[in-house]
Amino acid sequence: MCRWLAYSGAPLLLEEALYGGTNSLVAQSLKSRLGAEPTNGDGFGVGWYGARATPGIYRSTEPAWNDQNLHELAGQISSPLFFTHIRAAIGSAVQQTNCHPFRHENWLFMHNGYINEFATIKRDLILAVDPSLYPEIQGTADTEVLFFLALTFGLQDDPAAAVQEAVGFVEAVAARHEVPHPFQGTIATTDGESIWAFRYSSERNSRSLFVTTDIPTLRKLYPERELFGEVSENARMIVSEPLGDVAGVWNEVPESTWGVVGPGREQGLRPFRPKEPSISVPVA
Amino acid sequence: MCRWLAYSGAPLLLEEALYGGTNSLVAQSLKSRLGAEPTNGDGFGVGWYGARATPGIYRSTEPAWNDQNLHELAGQISSPLFFTHIRAAIGSAVQQTNCHPFRHENWLFMHNGYINEFATIKRDLILAVDPSLYPEIQGTADTEVLFFLALTFGLQDDPAAAVQEAVGFVEAVAARHEVPHPFQGTIATTDGESIWAFRYSSERNSRSLFVTTDIPTLRKLYPERELFGEVSENARMIVSEPLGDVAGVWNEVPESTWGVVGPGREQGLRPFRPKEPSISVPVA
Amino acid sequence: MCRWLAYSGAPLLLEEALYGGTNSLVAQSLKSRLGAEPTNGDGFGVGWYGARATPGIYRSTEPAWNDQNLHELAGQISSPLFFTHIRAAIGSAVQQTNCHPFRHENWLFMHNGYINEFATIKRDLILAVDPSLYPEIQGTADTEVLFFLALTFGLQDDPAAAVQEAVGFVEAVAARHEVPHPFQGTIATTDGESIWAFRYSSERNSRSLFVTTDIPTLRKLYPERELFGEVSENARMIVSEPLGDVAGVWNEVPESTWGVVGPGREQGLRPFRPKEPSISVPVA
Amino acid sequence: MCRWLAYSGAPLLLEEALYGGTNSLVAQSLKSRLGAEPTNGDGFGVGWYGARATPGIYRSTEPAWNDQNLHELAGQISSPLFFTHIRAAIGSAVQQTNCHPFRHENWLFMHNGYINEFATIKRDLILAVDPSLYPEIQGTADTEVLFFLALTFGLQDDPAAAVQEAVGFVEAVAARHEVPHPFQGTIATTDGESIWAFRYSSERNSRSLFVTTDIPTLRKLYPERELFGEVSENARMIVSEPLGDVAGVWNEVPESTWGVVGPGREQGLRPFRPKEPSISVPVA
Questions:
Q1: Distance from CA of C139 to the nearest CA of D (A)
Q2: Strand, helix or coil at D3?
Q3: So what's the ipTM on this one?
Q4: pLDDT tens, C10-20?
Q5: Taking a C-beta distance cutoff of 8 angstroms, is the pair D163, D271 a contact?
Q6: Are A153 and A164 in contact (CB under 8 A)?
């Protein structure tokens, strides 16, 4: 049902995150341990911040385990903040424009999960997207619509509030159409400096989400481990499932919470509460 | 700006139409003579009627001149009615879901041309699509939206009226947004029995369109030509540009006209007049 | 490590074989039950006899479970004899020219398995291919080289002898290079009329192979089953693993045997014995 | 028949070279001015030196003008030395393993042109490749074989001598098979520090090749041009055809010559003379 990984810290070669560990993200594309489906072979995407404020994006419809170009790029590109996503499609076409992460200006957005019975409620969701943003929608995936709803609700000003309102709006529209369990998943979004991560589902049984322990603690735990000596103090990785089995490294994010990682950002997790939409909900 | 070909008659091997002639459709993908652009390398599609009422569709984002699978299929598949289309993309992504022909139940639809400033008016056009049809839209091409507008306006009951109303609606919406020259192109649509073909542009300077002379006449003109002896009496081909240079074979369809080919269909061309839309046009 | 299916009988729509059954071949691409690897997502191929003596071939690097074109074609193409193959690549590139089945004139050839340490012995194998056949090699897969060795050893005159000599030659070359367990797998080849199937491995622990019970017996076993009433008396399917769980339908082909299905062919399985090569084996 | 571009100098964003100028390399993929064919739409490749001694490679079978990923990468990746190539295939399959540049350890190699009647002489050429290098051949293109011949003849020690011997060997083998005009083209190769460029054809009517005037001269010629002020003094670009029309920038490399650009390399062009092969030439 997709797997993703977000990194922030001192510049890191992408291949460390994509191919490193006993359960690397690319290994998960062929066989994930915790995913709703073991195979995540319906394309993938990488978004990274580098030469410009606007991040670069590399997306492909090939399975990640097969993509020779991904292997080449991951061995050459370093970045202080990047998103990677492997896809297990449910319904929408396997095409680059449906691969995560999605981008708007300097923002990236990715998701593991789904909007339930998307075909039924898609039209009402699309109509709520700000008309000035509407022409930017490139694909047909539920997540892209969710991203544009969040942008409509002010993602660039207050990401946490906007995502909670977007999910609230999805739930409200779904209620009108009697669609059960409307939202499922984990979400990450970034402006290139901070990363906001969310875990929530309407049924309160959400896809898994993990964040790494802070580096100073890891260094104390594992004084002999070179990797922890090399990465920067502020390095953090947020993932759908752990990349390996080292005890004390991976902390599960609890059900229905969100958090943010970034310079000057307050640590700690907060409850995720879908917000009542500020716009009117169409009658089904 | 795209090239297309429609065939109806006794079953014909696709390769006759796709690879035959000194200016075959596949040759036109690399170098067309009459196209707005010489290269039509942004994917292609074939739709054909065979085992079932619903036609088969083969679409690819590769240039037609390169596609080994197209060559194989064209050498094996015969059909009494088929559409083929080569694409020169203008704006919308090069992906299978944007390749013509588009399909709804037993209907196919393809187009050479464009809706001008599509991004500006797309939202208003999409909102006019019947909500029950809306979830079927798979891609992001202007032509697919035009097809679903025509379906909304009754394509399956009266194709000519529905296409003229869809174009009329596009022109009306464009007028509200002050978009000039809103529609350009030639269109073909079929239910698997008859083919309707249209040539029109808001500026009255439309892409070219040709139809073959009827076979009995061609046999009289060229008694020695084997091909004309072999194909069925009712065989007709409609194309964006002639496949070869044999005199008397290709007849240009005049500006702002439409016609229909099929069993029991009245011959002759009729004027194309965009129809005033039966639904309200949103204020810009 | 790949899965394949071969069919011969009255013309059958490809989708019956590709998408039918509780464990269809396309389902096996995502999750096979008996394969060395559960996922066979590294491309696929279909070869079928139809309009011409030369079979058509459709090959793609996408996972079969994702390929919309395969679904379309399978719903339109009927054939009295076809091969289909889903690939789990081991080493050689994921590209159409490495997808099975391979073709030479009216012959097809496909394989589930491998030549061990192919890189080490490839050069010696290639040099043994008849120089007049050599330019026809299009890809870099071990199976294609095996096919051209079999052609060199007279596949078109005596398929069983030629395949046993090709495998014998591989084993002899491998011995010079001290490569253990040189050959593994099951093979199918056809001239468009009969199908020869082989199960063998140097270590005598070969990939599984099954053939359907003859239709008259199946009709007696299951008088109420419509499918068995509809297919022709001579219909046979040979597969890497059963497409479903109906008792009495699937018979395992024993270790180190081969057989042939086709008009006027003697039934029964014979032992597979690698043949001493008739040409000299290069010194390593 | 392909177009290519090689850059060496201070790190430059790839998009300057790929998308800059009135006749940029990507524009040439759709419509080249000086190419044997106007369209170079059969894939492309980029090789660049960055994080490691081994260059990264990005290759795709899509036309360069369509590749969204190329556009993204070119806007993010800077490199002091890179090769880019757009392909017009002649015969060998359109697949990533046939896209230039080819790589061996820290070396890259690309070519615009062909080996005439390659199918006829390929086997003899392949047999001359050092057996230890042979398993590295990934594709089926004539240029890759030429590269491995040059490596066999010592490319890594003396590039100019090795390329002249490889071409000499091709001509000698072709002579045995009575193949006329065996070699045509321009070649670039690099070790990541210097670039060797060659222009030669057996018929002495070679594809065009241009090199930029040195930057100090360009600064004197165009004191007001910002670009020339910004790039490093030692920056050089070598191309199949000029990227624009600015007088004095592009200098044609004469027929049958070669040159080298790089730190401590002697300037000036030298005659290209195919070298008599040091190994025996097989009898046809």
A1: 7
A2: strand
A3: 0.92
A4: 999 999 989 98
A5: no
A6: no
User: What is the spatial distance between Cα D183 and Cα D115, in angstroms, rounded to a whole number?
Assistant: 5
Q: Given a contact as 3+ CB pairs under 8 Å, which chains touch A?
A: B, C, D
Residue B30 sits at the chain D interface (C-beta within 8 Å): yes
Contacts of A13 in chain D (CB under 8 A): 51
pLDDT of residue D1: 63
Query: Which residue among the candidates D1, D2, D18, D237 is catalytic per the annotation?
Result: D2
Active-site option among B1, B2, B195, B260? B2
Least confident range of C162-166, C275-279, D89-93: D89-93
Residues 127-146 of D with CB under 8 A from B: none
Chain B environment of C106 (Cβ under 8 Å) = none
Closest CA–CA distance from residue A73 to any residue of chain D (Å): 7
C-alpha atoms less than 13 angstroms from C-alpha of A168 in its C-beta half-sphere: 16
Nearest to B51 among C69, C75, C96 (CB): C75
Q: Give per-10-residue mean pLDDT for chain B (284 aa).
A: 91 91 86 82 95 95 93 96 93 92 98 96 96 95 97 98 98 97 97 98 95 88 80 91 87 96 88 92 80
Question: Which residues of B are less than 8 Å from A93 in CB distance?
Answer: 95-97, 138-139
Report the C-alpha gap between A112 and A187 in whole angstroms. Answer: 7
Residue of C nearest to D132 (CA): C120
Residues of C in contact with D119 (CB under 8 A): 135
Task: Nearest by CB to C30, from A39, A61, A94: name it.
Answer: A39
Which whole number is the average pLDDT over A271-276?
95
Residue B188: beta bridge partners?
Answer: B110, B197
Q: What is the CA radius of gyration of chain B?
A: 18
Mean pLDDT of A108-135: 96
Cα A38 to Cα B160: distance, rounded to the nearest angstrom? 50
Task: Tell me the pLDDT of chain C averaged across its residues.
Answer: 93
* E strand map for chain D: 3-13, 44-48, 56-60, 78-86, 102-104, 107-115, 183-190, 195-201, 210-212, 236-239, 250-252, 257-261, 270-271
* pLDDT surpassing 80 at residue C37: no
Read off the pLDDT of each residue in C237-255 and give the average, rounded to a whole number: 91
Q: Looking at the partner chain, which of B50, B56, B75 has a beta carbon nearest the beta carbon of C52?
A: B75
Number of neighbours of residue D204 by Cβ within 10 angstroms: 9
Compute the distance between CA of residue D111 and CA of residue D188 in angstroms, rounded to an integer: 6
CB contact under 8 A, C41 and A38: no
Q: Which helix (H) or strand (E) holds B110?
A: strand B107-115
Token look-up 């165009």 returns D222
Instruction: Give yes or no for a contact between B200 and B272, defined as CB atoms under 8 angstroms apart.
Output: yes
C89 contact residues in A (CB cutoff 8 A): 66
Min Cα–Cα distance to chain A from C39, Å: 7
Cβ contact, residue pair C52, B13, below 8 Å: no
Interval C66-113: pLDDT, tens: 999 999 999 999 999 999 999 988 878 999 999 999 999 999 999 999
Q: Is C2 a catalytic residue?
A: yes
Which is nearest to C182 in space by CA: C194, C174, C193?
C174
pLDDT, residue A46, reads 98
CB contact under 8 A, C77 and B77: yes
Peptide bond into D101 cis (omega under 30): yes
pLDDT at B1: 63
